[in-house]
Amino acid sequence: MLETSARLLRLLSLLQTPREWPGAELAERLGVSHRTIRRDIDRLRELGYVVHATAGTPGYRLGAGAGLPPLLLDDEEAVAVAIGLGTAAVSGVTGIQETSLRALAKLEQVLPSRLRHRVGDLRSVTVPLADRAAAVDPAVLTAIAAAVRHRESLRFDYRSHDGAEDRRTAEPYRLVNSGRRWYLVAWDTGRGGWRTFRVDRLRLHAPNGPRFTPREPPGADLVRYVSERISVDPYRYRGRFTVHAPAGVVAARMPPTMAVVEPARDGACVLTAGSNSLDELATWVAHLGVPFEVHEPPELVEHIRALGARLVDAARRHPPA
User: Fold this and answer.
1) What share of the chain is helix, strand, coil (3-state, %, to 5)?
2) Mean pLDDT over all residues of the chain?
3) What is the mean pLDDT of residues 148-158?
């Protein structure tokens, strides 16, 4: 049985080359009879592979099926796919980062050590032409993804925004990508609460910690949760505005790392953002160039009124030529 299984895998590997294989050539490659090749082709079909046969001189070609059967890769192909998925996982192409990360985590889990070393060597000498401050090693992302899947605690050093670094232990729940950065949503066991960690600021320690029982997530919409944690919560002032423009238009100018944008009635939207400066909040929302209303903080209304008066006074002192 083991010999038959190994032969089927070799046969499948040959058929995955995009060409038509004469039965005689397959038999010679595998060192078996034509009858054995026909029997093996039937076994592959029973396993869900679509194998087309040509009339006349027996020939075989692997076709596309309704489902996705297992894919066999040689060493060079496996390394190429791993590198490609790693590049896609940290790219700016919308919608493929998380999918690429999941696929990369599955692939790296089964790569032989010799191939993992080759992938790691190539990554170590590759420098992306991108925002270096937000650069994340795909190996770190796949390690976190594996810990999420296996429900294993993570131990890591974390550097906060002020440069302070301390040791953390956390139960990882999800990775969230903002387009420029990756964030880990996790339960901080040392501080007893949900936290959002920038992945480029953490340094993992091996091995992982003990397995854990998943908790109720901090919110139904994790993208909104992370957006609020990084764009509102860290700041002194929480600004909330009704902006009279479609949510999609405003969100294009205010990414999740800067504000939370939610649709409202009559084509308007609600924008929530944080800042340590009332001046910054006022000028920031004014730069959208559309009408808006202030809901909070209460002192921002008077601040905008005073700021507006100063701007009008400055314009009066310099009448148009």
Assistant:
1) 45, 25, 30
2) 83
3) 93
Q: How many CB atoms lie within 10 A of CB 235?
A: 15
Beta-bridged to residue 196, according to DSSP, are 185
Look up residue 4 and give its amino acid: T
Please, is 87 exposed, middle or buried when counting C-beta atoms within 10 Å of its C-beta (0-12, 13-18, 19+)? Answer: middle
Place of tokens 């996790």: 186
Q: Is the pLDDT of residue 30 over 70?
A: yes
Cα 206 to Cα 150, 202, 203, distances in angstroms: 15, 13, 10
pLDDT given at position 157: 95
Burial class (CB in 10 A: 0-12, 13-18, 19+), 256: buried
Report pLDDT for 173. Answer: 94
In this structure, are residues 188 and 195 in contact, taking their beta carbons and an 8 Å threshold?
Answer: yes
User: E-strand spans in 222-320?
Assistant: 237-243, 260-263, 269-275, 292-296
Residue 241, both tokens: 């505005």
C-beta contacts of 185-194 below 8 A and 24+ residues apart: 185/217, 185/218, 185/222, 185/225, 185/226, 186/154, 187/215, 189/153, 194/218
Taking CA atoms, 204 is separated from 17, 140, 277, in Å, by 40, 8, 35
Say which range, 12-16, 26-30, 276-280, 296-300, has the weakest mean pLDDT.
12-16
In terms of pLDDT, which residue wins out, 44 or 215? Answer: 215
Both tokens assigned to 270: 């609600």
Computed on alpha carbons and rounded to an integer, the radius of gyration of the chain in Å comes to: 28
Name the amino acid, one letter, at 200.
D
**pLDDT for position 204:** 95
